[in-house]
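Example 487.
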Amino acid sequence: MKKNKILMAAAELFPLVKVGGLGDVIGSLPDALTKLNLDINVIIPFYGVIDKNKFKIKLVKKRISIEIDNKKTYFDLYQTKVPKSKVKIFLIKHKLFNFKKIYLGGRKYLKSGKYTREIKDIERFTFFSKAVAEVIKKLNWNIDLLHCHDWHTALLPTFLDEYYIKYKDFKNIKTLFTIHNLANQGISGLDILDYAGLDHKMTPALMEDYYDLDGDKIDAMKIGILSADYINTVSPNYAQEILTKEYGEGLEIYLQRRKKHLRGIVNGIDYKFFNPQKDKFIKNKYTVKNYKKAKNNNKKYLQKEYNLPIQDVPLFGLVTRLVKQKGLDILLPALENILIKQKIQLVVLGTGQKKYEEAFIKLTNKYPNKVSSKITFNAEIAQRIYAGTDFFLMPSRFEPCGLGQMIAMRYGSIPIVRSTGGLKDTVKNNKTGLVFNKYKKQELEKILLKSIKLYNKRDKIIKNCMLTNFSWENSAQQYLKLYNKII
Ligand code: ADP
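Predicted structure in complex with adenosine-5'-diphosphate:
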């Protein structure tokens, strides 16, 4: 039987290059899919930060021509594989990506609360998207499905439609667009179309965007939603939520229009990497059969690492980007009340918006025996928090999928989450965690008190958590089903 050939295009891929959850997904989903008899290829930009020697990256084809900004330029195509994986990884090398950073500009917040990257980044990923289409054409890749991820590659279906429909190999290429972060939309001025060489009036999605925004802006995310054959996001519940004004980030009307072609598939986590039995970053390894003593020792080790007194009290963990999305506006006041009266401890690991970083430092100074914060990004400490805490906090305002709660469960740290997005799909109240509904500090406070009461009889929930399966195999099966439907 012929294998279906899939090409995924994305901006990040772990372990080559990663900023956030997108990199994790592109680093592990393709591998799970190859095990389902699919021919999976991934293409990313060859950033200056990627270590060419470490990953044994080899040149495939030099000087592939492309027209961008009304000029002819050339890029090179490279290839690699990661150890123990059959996935072919391709990289596009061009001076636009030679920098030592993935994204050049920071986030630029718009009045609506949406954000975009600085314009230069939008040009870079427009170039990347067009280059991917050129590679398919010039190397005669017989692709059955092009799977695009987030705004960076959202123009790809349009490139296929508008430019390449006349080439026979392009006619049968179907497209899937996965939304990992709806708030990050890649908004730029109309001149991006001239830069890309796209015709304003030829593609319905472009025209729609043009008229909606009074002709002065292009929203890449919206074009992806309107132009791909199918769309999915990273949990079934979030796929429903984004149809509403509350979660739709201004794109709900377009998502509603595409509802028939919108799906939700929950992410998995890398079970090889997130494995308490083999994790080299934690002191005492364990499984569901022998976690008690090991977790207790890991807890003591963590208390020491965080300069907290070694005590047998409920220990809470928070590992996150310190941004509004993560529910910090209700967490901070709820904690204040709890910390005054209750014997608990909290360890924090995160970076982000200054006001939240400062708030956690302040809390640490106010309760030095109860709270300790490390304002940094450190994957090794993160593992020790998952392994050493009793409870893991994720009171998010919204959460497309969320990985933290799944990692916490795998390590037997009971998640405390708000019933939103992927958190609702993955955590079952009183069975694999504690769940609250309304985005209110009182509700969170109540659930924190409940967790303190649960502390001495938490074993059943820990076991349920550790026995829940969040490996990529489940999710890959669902992607396979969706691919088959589209192709
Ligand atoms: P998001 O993608 O919105 O940031 P997720 O829960 O989906 O949230 O994924 C967050 C991932 O990043 C988790 O693996 C978490 O452990 C990790 N992480 C977040 N902040 C830090 C940090 N400061 N140090 C180490 N790892 C972090």
